[in-house]
Design goal:
Shape: rod-shaped
Number of strands: 0
Number of helices: 3
Distance between the termini: 123 Å
Radius of gyration: 34 Å
Order of helices and strands: HHH
Structural class: mainly alpha
């Protein structure tokens, strides 16, 4: 077992490894010559979301005379336009658009049934 001692003056020790890169932020290039990264906001379908919200409110308020019917018509209209936009945008808020159409239709039908039952009940009481 013949080991040689390390030679003195063989050269400097190897350099330490480079530090880890700093976290990258959008819009900031980490190194010169690399492309910038930009954050883009996802496209939303505001009309479809509005149709869904108005449809849900219409179902909750269907028992108020005319309010449920008016909100139902608005919800079906907004839901239809939102559904068309969702097809153009690749499905953005398609579920809310369908919610507006369905809930608005249900509220409209229920409001009409209540209105008809009030008229029929009133005519029976008057006779």
């Amino acid at each position: 077992m013949n080991q040689q001692p390390p030679s003195v003056g063989a050269g400097p020790p190897p350099p330490p490894p480079p530090p880890p890169p700093h976290p990258q932020f959008y819009g900031q290039a980490p190194y010169p010559g690399q492309p910038m990264l930009y954050a883009t906001a996802p496209s939303t379908n505001g009309v479809g979301v509005a149709g869904g919200v108005v449809g849900i409110v219409a179902v909750v308020l269907f028992w108020f005379p005319f309010i449920g019917a008016i909100l139902g018509i608005i919800a079906v209209s907004l839901g239809g336009v939102g559904l068309q936009r969702a097809k153009q945008m690749g499905g953005s808020s398609k579920g809310m658009s369908v919610t507006g159409i369905v809930c608005g239709s249900v509220a409209l039908v229920l409001n009409i049934l209540i209105f008809v039952s009030i008229i029929v009940g009133h005519s029976h009481l008057a006779a």
